[in-house]
């Protein structure tokens, strides 16, 4: 039975097609807007894309110019490949990958050739024994190196090198079985990989470099600033002292990105350790100390997250009680917030964090006041402890945050000693106290958490 | 001036050499012990190494057998390369990489050839215009795709594919300039990559497969169990009701690994989405719901971290006060702990989490008791609120944890509805309540946090 063409079904089909079409257009527009936003958030992303394209175009000229092509032949392909695989966003990541690739290729090439000659001399060219022996060697080497890749210390810094080692070792020892000009091939491969690696490292360092160390430094200081923002705004939000319509909630919620910042920080520390001295960061800069600072910031952030949960619990506490405890609590919160922001400024400017001490001292005085107030007269009129519980908890958590901040200040002082921060700018810092360095942190930092996936997925390929 | 050989300096030199030697030996022994520990923690690591070695040995047989070699020639190298680069620890990661690589190679190959023929027909074989046009196309394509890699949704699932796309597009359109048999080369490359990808996917799936989905499932349920362990032990630790020498501290501190579990979970979710249905996980299993459960677990873990900070603050509270509040607090903590452990068991066994409801109800009753106790008679004898602060804070935090647990239970219920968990095992689950599923979670899970770097650094190479 053949169905007749029904005008209604045609109209329906047309409608479907139009819907699909408009949805498709909407999706494309959406992606375009996202791409535009990515570039606005951090223009270094667009620059990075052009840098990679430039390096590839440069290296592919090997193929176009006769003289260059004739010296390497089709091995020139390895140079193109190396540039594509090695080019990462930051200098540290690129250098790490480049060095891993270069060293691993060299070492595996030598060992692969060695194993081939050994097998060849044992088997005396026997076409049955030779592949069996080669197979056994490849099996053992691959299994061993794959297993070593699970070691955490190898994983963190040399994972890519170990992968390239397996790759080159297999390629050299397998192809040695057929390729009669194996030495020439190996030599060409090492040379072209070195050329590719050099080009991508050069472009990465000399064209608008992105330093993982600088990003790490900015990320850690920005995170501390976010914690400070929360605490500075917390008193007003909790005690409801803001005018109608006014609210700090937006900037206060920024602290949430600190909670899950560990992975990004660890990756940046790994990359930063590959980088040479640059800008304000000297040779063998104590990058590991940032791990300690980051951990303490997160510890503080966990307390703040608990505090955040109490922001809506306020209504139950009676007004008189509130007003009694309000002053020291607000003082404590604001001073701790200022201390954190001052710590962030000092870290960012690389000056000793002494300017934060006055705020820490003030917050400790407020804490002592609060304690003695709680000790003496707070409960004179209240026998109903239940109404007091939320505010007492908040006060207690704030006391906890004050001691976390002290620990954080100590770890930044340690960094200051290790990295020999100098004090000449301390006057400027004191002036900046009122206007935090929000404007000074380059806009890239704003999006550094967004970038987390970029940095963790440092994927290479062939 | 030539210095004479001094017996003392020789002895010193010898001592140095011996020190260096013994240090070297100690280092090697240390690494060996670590390797042994890695294998003990999770034997799947050793199995994975042998699987990779087996796949590589299998694919390298292409080279040894004349007939196979003659049909592909040196392109057989690409198969070896693909196996090495694509073989990842879990099935999901391997499938994701394999599909990305296969599709990207095919697409880029076609587009690369297309762009070459277009350029060739425009330039009509002119040896100056042709490389310039090719260079412009490569520059634009590379810059565009590199920029698209920054899009978070592309980064998460298709980053490797985009990289391979750039690679293949460049290789094909560049080498087309020199290679006269470009079609044959492209065809060989696609075929060998498909063969390599197939071999590694087959070995990964059919030889002791490691499912990212299963790992994710175990990780999330194990994390909830860790939170439960803390809360079950907290009452005894805080109120000091344990015998001398007894302590839960070791198992209680396990919750710390939950704080930074986000990255590992997100990666496992991404991998799990590539996996076909397997075991108890059907097609289109709601993996995204694990993200919600994980986030709620972490929120609970932040509160627990704050509670943990109060474990040493106990001494200040007077004994009588302590004994008054002790019962409901302990009840609340233990019941919440049991509820979390029951939720973990239900999740692990994939049965509806109804068995946890009794514990949640009991913890809520304890919470109501605590509230009314605080409301009425707690402060009769105490005018010094200061002594009461820590314990009131702890009680308040416990109340907060109870409501977090409720939310967590709801999200697991949602998963249960989405994934259609069945209730036939509920009796078994009720029995298991006293003996949590510690023994049942395969030992691999114990080390899953250790593995985090493995999963985040899914590095490939050439």
Automatic annotation (TrEMBL), chains A, B:
<feature type="transmembrane region" description="Helical">
    <location>
        <begin position="190"/>
        <end position="212"/>
    </location>
</feature>
<keyword id="KW-1133">Transmembrane helix</keyword>
<feature type="transmembrane region" description="Helical">
    <location>
        <begin position="46"/>
        <end position="65"/>
    </location>
</feature>
<feature type="transmembrane region" description="Helical">
    <location>
        <begin position="160"/>
        <end position="178"/>
    </location>
</feature>
<feature type="transmembrane region" description="Helical">
    <location>
        <begin position="103"/>
        <end position="122"/>
    </location>
</feature>
<comment type="similarity">
    <text>Belongs to the aromatic acid exporter (TC 2.A.85) family.</text>
</comment>
<keyword id="KW-0407">Ion channel</keyword>
<feature type="transmembrane region" description="Helical">
    <location>
        <begin position="77"/>
        <end position="96"/>
    </location>
</feature>
<protein>
    <submittedName>
        <fullName>Aluminum-activated malate transporter 2-like</fullName>
    </submittedName>
</protein>
<keyword id="KW-0472">Membrane</keyword>
<keyword id="KW-0406">Ion transport</keyword>
<dbReference type="GO" id="GO:0034220">
    <property type="term" value="P:monoatomic ion transmembrane transport"/>
</dbReference>
<keyword id="KW-0813">Transport</keyword>
<dbReference type="Pfam" id="PF11744">
    <property type="entry name" value="ALMT"/>
</dbReference>
<dbReference type="GO" id="GO:0015743">
    <property type="term" value="P:malate transport"/>
</dbReference>
<feature type="transmembrane region" description="Helical">
    <location>
        <begin position="128"/>
        <end position="148"/>
    </location>
</feature>
<dbReference type="InterPro" id="IPR020966">
    <property type="entry name" value="ALMT"/>
</dbReference>
<dbReference type="GO" id="GO:0016020">
    <property type="term" value="C:membrane"/>
</dbReference>
<keyword id="KW-0812">Transmembrane</keyword>
């Amino acid at each position: 039975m053949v169905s007749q063409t029904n005008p209604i079904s045609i109209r329906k089909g047309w409608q479907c097609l139009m819907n699909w079409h408009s949805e498709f257009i909407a999706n494309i527009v959406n992606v375009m807007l996202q791409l535009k936003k990515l570039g606005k958030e951090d223009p270094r992303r667009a620059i990075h894309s052009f840098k990679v394209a430039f390096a590839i175009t440069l290296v592919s000229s090997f193929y176009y110019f006769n003289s260059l092509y004739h010296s390497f032949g089709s091995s020139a392909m390895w140079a193109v490949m190396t540039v594509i695989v090695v080019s990462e966003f930051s200098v540290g990541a690129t250098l790490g990958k480049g060095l891993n690739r270069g060293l691993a290729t060299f070492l595996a090439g030598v060992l692969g050739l060695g194993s081939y000659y050994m097998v060849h001399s044992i088997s005396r060219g026997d076409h049955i024994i030779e592949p069996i022996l080669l197979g056994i060697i490849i099996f053992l080497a691959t299994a061993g190196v794959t297993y070593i890749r699970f070691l955490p210390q190898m994983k963190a810094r040399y994972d890519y090198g170990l992968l390239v080692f397996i790759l080159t070792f297999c390629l050299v020892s397998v192809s040695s079985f057929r390729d009669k000009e194996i030495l020439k091939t190996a030599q060409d491969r090492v040379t072209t990989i070195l050329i590719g690696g050099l080009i991508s490292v050069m472009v990465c360092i000399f064209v608008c470099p992105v330093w993982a160390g600088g990003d790490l430094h900015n990320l850690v200081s920005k995170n501390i600033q976010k914690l400070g923002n929360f605490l500075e705004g917390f008193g007003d939000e909790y005690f409801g002292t803001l005018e109608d319509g006014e609210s700090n909630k937006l900037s206060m919620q920024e602290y949430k990105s600190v909670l899950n910042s560990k992975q990004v920080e660890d990756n940046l520390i790994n990359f930063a350790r590959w980088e040479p001295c640059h800008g304000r960061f000297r040779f063998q800069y104590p990058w590991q100390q940032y791990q300690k600072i980051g951990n303490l910031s997160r510890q503080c952030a966990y307390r703040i997250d608990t505090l955040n949960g109490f922001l809506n619990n306020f209504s139950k506490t009676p007004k008189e009680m509130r007003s009694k405890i309000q002053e020291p609590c607000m003082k404590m919160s604001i001073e701790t917030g200022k201390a954190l922001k001052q710590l962030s400024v000092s870290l960012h400017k690389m000056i000793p964090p002494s300017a934060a001490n006055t705020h820490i001292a003030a917050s400790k005085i407020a804490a002592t006041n609060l304690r003695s107030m709680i000790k003496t007269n707070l409960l004179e009129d209240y026998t109903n402890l239940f109404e007091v519980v939320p505010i007492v908890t908040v006060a207690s958590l704030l006391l906890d945050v004050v001691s976390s901040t002290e620990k954080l200040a100590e770890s930044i002082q340690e960094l200051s000693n290790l990295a020999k921060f100098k004090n000449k700018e301390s006057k400027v810092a004191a002036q900046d106290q009122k206007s935090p360095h929000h404007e000074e942190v380059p806009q890239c930092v704003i999006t550094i958490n967004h970038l987390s996936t970029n940095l963790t997925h440092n994927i290479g390929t062939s």
